[in-house]
Amino acid sequence: MMEDSLKSQQPRQEKLDTTTRIATPKDLEACLSLRLEGLKNYPYMLGVTKEGINEEESKIELKEELLPHKNKFYILAEKGSVPVGISFAIRAKGDWWHVGRDYTKTEFMNQGIGKKMLARRLYEILQKGGATVTAFIRPDNDTNIHIYTSFGFQEVDIMSTQYSKETKADVKETGFLCFELDLTDPDVIRRVDKVLNAG
Protein backbone atom coordinates (compact mmCIF):
# COMPACT_ATOMS: atom_id res chain seq x y z
CA MET A 1 0.00 0.00 0.00
CA MET A 2 2.77 2.41 0.95
CA GLU A 3 4.69 1.55 -2.25
CA ASP A 4 1.63 2.42 -4.35
CA SER A 5 1.39 5.78 -2.60
CA LEU A 6 5.07 6.51 -3.26
CA LYS A 7 4.78 5.52 -6.91
CA SER A 8 1.91 7.95 -7.41
CA GLN A 9 3.99 10.77 -5.90
CA GLN A 10 6.97 10.25 -8.21
CA PRO A 11 7.16 12.72 -11.08
CA ARG A 12 5.99 11.26 -14.35
CA GLN A 13 8.15 11.48 -17.40
CA GLU A 14 6.48 13.69 -19.99
CA LYS A 15 5.05 11.57 -22.77
CA LEU A 16 5.86 13.11 -26.13
CA ASP A 17 3.72 12.26 -29.11
CA THR A 18 5.40 10.57 -32.04
CA THR A 19 5.04 12.42 -35.31
CA THR A 20 5.75 10.99 -38.75
CA ARG A 21 6.36 12.87 -41.96
CA ILE A 22 8.08 12.59 -45.31
CA ALA A 23 11.75 13.39 -44.81
CA THR A 24 13.30 16.22 -46.85
CA PRO A 25 16.89 17.10 -47.83
CA LYS A 26 17.19 19.22 -44.66
CA ASP A 27 16.77 15.97 -42.68
CA LEU A 28 19.92 14.43 -44.21
CA GLU A 29 22.02 14.38 -41.03
CA ALA A 30 19.21 12.98 -38.87
CA CYS A 31 18.39 10.29 -41.44
CA LEU A 32 22.07 9.45 -41.96
CA SER A 33 22.62 9.08 -38.22
CA LEU A 34 19.60 6.77 -37.88
CA ARG A 35 20.58 4.77 -40.95
CA LEU A 36 24.17 4.24 -39.80
CA GLU A 37 23.01 3.27 -36.32
CA GLY A 38 20.55 0.86 -37.92
CA LEU A 39 23.23 -0.68 -40.11
CA LYS A 40 25.50 -1.13 -37.11
CA ASN A 41 22.78 -3.00 -35.22
CA TYR A 42 21.19 -4.72 -38.23
CA PRO A 43 23.60 -5.09 -41.19
CA TYR A 44 20.77 -6.44 -43.36
CA MET A 45 18.60 -3.33 -42.76
CA LEU A 46 18.99 -2.04 -46.29
CA GLY A 47 17.83 -5.32 -47.72
CA VAL A 48 19.13 -8.00 -49.93
CA THR A 49 21.70 -6.25 -52.09
CA LYS A 50 23.09 -3.48 -49.88
CA GLU A 51 24.45 -5.27 -46.84
CA GLY A 52 27.64 -3.64 -45.65
CA ILE A 53 27.11 -0.23 -47.31
CA ASN A 54 29.46 2.33 -45.76
CA GLU A 55 28.93 5.86 -44.41
CA GLU A 56 29.98 7.73 -47.55
CA GLU A 57 27.85 5.52 -49.81
CA SER A 58 24.94 5.99 -47.40
CA LYS A 59 25.29 9.77 -47.49
CA ILE A 60 25.43 9.88 -51.30
CA GLU A 61 22.44 7.57 -51.64
CA LEU A 62 20.41 9.41 -48.98
CA LYS A 63 21.04 12.81 -50.60
CA GLU A 64 19.40 11.51 -53.75
CA GLU A 65 16.64 9.59 -51.98
CA LEU A 66 15.57 12.58 -49.85
CA LEU A 67 14.90 14.78 -52.87
CA PRO A 68 11.17 15.23 -53.52
CA HIS A 69 10.15 12.43 -55.88
CA LYS A 70 6.86 10.87 -56.88
CA ASN A 71 8.30 7.34 -56.84
CA LYS A 72 10.17 7.12 -53.52
CA PHE A 73 10.32 8.66 -50.08
CA TYR A 74 11.61 8.23 -46.54
CA ILE A 75 9.42 8.62 -43.47
CA LEU A 76 11.07 10.24 -40.46
CA ALA A 77 9.59 9.61 -37.01
CA GLU A 78 10.25 12.08 -34.21
CA LYS A 79 9.45 12.21 -30.50
CA GLY A 80 9.22 15.91 -29.86
CA SER A 81 12.21 17.18 -31.87
CA VAL A 82 14.25 13.97 -31.48
CA PRO A 83 14.57 11.79 -34.62
CA VAL A 84 13.76 8.23 -33.50
CA GLY A 85 13.05 6.22 -36.66
CA ILE A 86 13.18 6.04 -40.44
CA SER A 87 11.59 3.88 -43.09
CA PHE A 88 11.54 3.83 -46.89
CA ALA A 89 9.07 3.28 -49.73
CA ILE A 90 9.70 3.02 -53.46
CA ARG A 91 7.41 2.55 -56.43
CA ALA A 92 8.44 -0.65 -58.13
CA LYS A 93 6.19 -0.30 -61.17
CA GLY A 94 2.79 1.24 -61.84
CA ASP A 95 0.60 0.90 -58.75
CA TRP A 96 2.96 -1.59 -57.07
CA TRP A 97 5.20 -0.31 -54.25
CA HIS A 98 7.84 -1.86 -52.01
CA VAL A 99 8.53 -0.84 -48.40
CA GLY A 100 11.45 -1.55 -46.10
CA ARG A 101 14.56 -0.14 -44.42
CA ASP A 102 12.70 0.16 -41.13
CA TYR A 103 14.68 1.31 -38.12
CA THR A 104 13.63 2.59 -34.71
CA LYS A 105 16.25 3.64 -32.16
CA THR A 106 16.62 0.87 -29.59
CA GLU A 107 15.58 3.02 -26.62
CA PHE A 108 12.33 3.93 -28.39
CA MET A 109 11.30 0.43 -29.47
CA ASN A 110 7.97 -1.04 -28.34
CA GLN A 111 6.28 2.37 -28.33
CA GLY A 112 4.30 1.97 -31.56
CA ILE A 113 6.75 3.95 -33.70
CA GLY A 114 7.22 1.20 -36.29
CA LYS A 115 3.46 0.91 -36.64
CA LYS A 116 3.08 4.67 -37.10
CA MET A 117 5.83 4.77 -39.74
CA LEU A 118 4.21 1.92 -41.67
CA ALA A 119 0.78 3.60 -41.47
CA ARG A 120 2.27 6.88 -42.76
CA ARG A 121 3.98 5.07 -45.66
CA LEU A 122 0.78 3.24 -46.61
CA TYR A 123 -1.17 6.50 -46.47
CA GLU A 124 1.36 8.27 -48.71
CA ILE A 125 1.46 5.33 -51.13
CA LEU A 126 -2.34 5.37 -51.35
CA GLN A 127 -2.22 9.12 -52.10
CA LYS A 128 0.19 8.34 -54.95
CA GLY A 129 -2.16 5.76 -56.48
CA GLY A 130 -0.56 2.65 -55.01
CA ALA A 131 -2.59 -0.56 -54.83
CA THR A 132 -0.17 -3.38 -53.99
CA VAL A 133 2.65 -3.19 -51.45
CA THR A 134 5.38 -5.78 -50.82
CA ALA A 135 7.94 -6.10 -48.04
CA PHE A 136 10.79 -8.49 -47.30
CA ILE A 137 11.26 -9.39 -43.64
CA ARG A 138 13.74 -11.71 -42.00
CA PRO A 139 12.00 -14.71 -40.42
CA ASP A 140 13.59 -13.93 -37.03
CA ASN A 141 12.18 -10.38 -36.98
CA ASP A 142 9.03 -11.17 -34.99
CA THR A 143 8.35 -7.49 -34.27
CA ASN A 144 8.17 -6.46 -37.93
CA ILE A 145 6.21 -9.55 -38.87
CA HIS A 146 3.67 -8.64 -36.18
CA ILE A 147 3.49 -4.98 -37.28
CA TYR A 148 3.07 -5.80 -40.96
CA THR A 149 0.51 -8.57 -40.47
CA SER A 150 -1.51 -6.29 -38.16
CA PHE A 151 -2.19 -4.12 -41.23
CA GLY A 152 -3.20 -7.11 -43.35
CA PHE A 153 0.09 -8.06 -45.03
CA GLN A 154 0.13 -11.76 -45.84
CA GLU A 155 3.13 -13.97 -46.42
CA VAL A 156 3.36 -15.05 -50.04
CA ASP A 157 5.74 -17.10 -52.12
CA ILE A 158 8.28 -14.68 -53.58
CA MET A 159 8.09 -16.47 -56.91
CA SER A 160 4.37 -15.65 -57.21
CA THR A 161 4.84 -11.91 -56.80
CA GLN A 162 5.42 -9.21 -59.35
CA TYR A 163 8.80 -8.61 -57.70
CA SER A 164 10.22 -11.91 -58.94
CA LYS A 165 8.90 -11.20 -62.43
CA GLU A 166 10.41 -7.71 -62.58
CA THR A 167 13.85 -8.18 -61.01
CA LYS A 168 16.77 -10.51 -61.18
CA ALA A 169 17.32 -10.60 -57.39
CA ASP A 170 16.84 -14.05 -55.95
CA VAL A 171 15.39 -13.03 -52.62
CA LYS A 172 14.40 -16.58 -51.74
CA GLU A 173 18.06 -17.55 -51.32
CA THR A 174 18.61 -14.78 -48.74
CA GLY A 175 16.15 -16.23 -46.25
CA PHE A 176 13.89 -13.17 -46.25
CA LEU A 177 10.14 -13.77 -46.19
CA CYS A 178 7.95 -11.92 -48.67
CA PHE A 179 4.77 -10.19 -47.54
CA GLU A 180 2.16 -8.54 -49.74
CA LEU A 181 -0.74 -6.16 -49.05
CA ASP A 182 -3.79 -5.16 -51.09
CA LEU A 183 -3.89 -1.47 -50.26
CA THR A 184 -7.32 -1.06 -51.88
CA ASP A 185 -8.96 -3.29 -49.23
CA PRO A 186 -11.31 -1.06 -47.14
CA ASP A 187 -10.23 -2.89 -43.94
CA VAL A 188 -6.61 -1.94 -44.62
CA ILE A 189 -7.56 1.69 -45.19
CA ARG A 190 -9.49 1.70 -41.89
CA ARG A 191 -6.47 0.25 -40.03
CA VAL A 192 -4.17 2.91 -41.50
CA ASP A 193 -6.64 5.66 -40.60
CA LYS A 194 -7.01 4.32 -37.04
CA VAL A 195 -3.25 4.31 -36.41
CA LEU A 196 -2.70 7.77 -37.93
CA ASN A 197 -5.56 9.29 -35.95
CA ALA A 198 -4.82 7.62 -32.62
CA GLY A 199 -4.21 10.20 -29.91
Describe the protein's architecture and organization.
This protein is of the alpha+beta class. It has a single domain (16-196), classed as Aminopeptidase (3-Layer(aba) Sandwich), CATH 3.40.630.30. The chain contains seven helices and seven strands. It has helices spanning 2-9, 28-41, 55-65, 113-127, 142-150, 162-166, 186-196, and strands spanning 18-22, 72-79, 82-93, 96-104, 132-137, 154-156, 177-182. The chain has a seven-stranded mixed beta sheet, sandwiched between helices. α4 (113-127) links the parallel β4 and β5. α2 crosses α3 (55-65). The longest helix has 15 residues, at 113-127. It starts with a helix and ends with a helix.
Write the layout of secondary structure elements.
Layout: H1 2-9, E1 18-22, H2 28-41, H3 55-65, E2 72-79, E3 82-93, E4 96-104, H4 113-127, E5 132-137, H5 142-150, E6 154-156, H6 162-166, E7 177-182, H7 186-196
Helix pairs in contact: 2-3, 4-7
Shape: globular
Q: Report the mean per-residue pLDDT as an integer.
A: 82
Which CATH architecture is right?
3-Layer(aba) Sandwich
Gyration radius from CA atoms, angstroms: 18 Å
Work out the number of β strands: 7
Total helical elements? 7
Amount of helix: 25-40%
* Distance linking N and C termini: 32 Å
For the sheet with most strands, the description reads: 7 strands, mixed
Q: Proportion of β residues?
A: 15-25%
Uncertain ranges: 1-15
What name is given to the CATH topology? Aminopeptidase
Query: Regarding CATH, which class?
Result: Alpha Beta
> What string gives the helices and strands in order?
HEHHEEEHEHEHEH
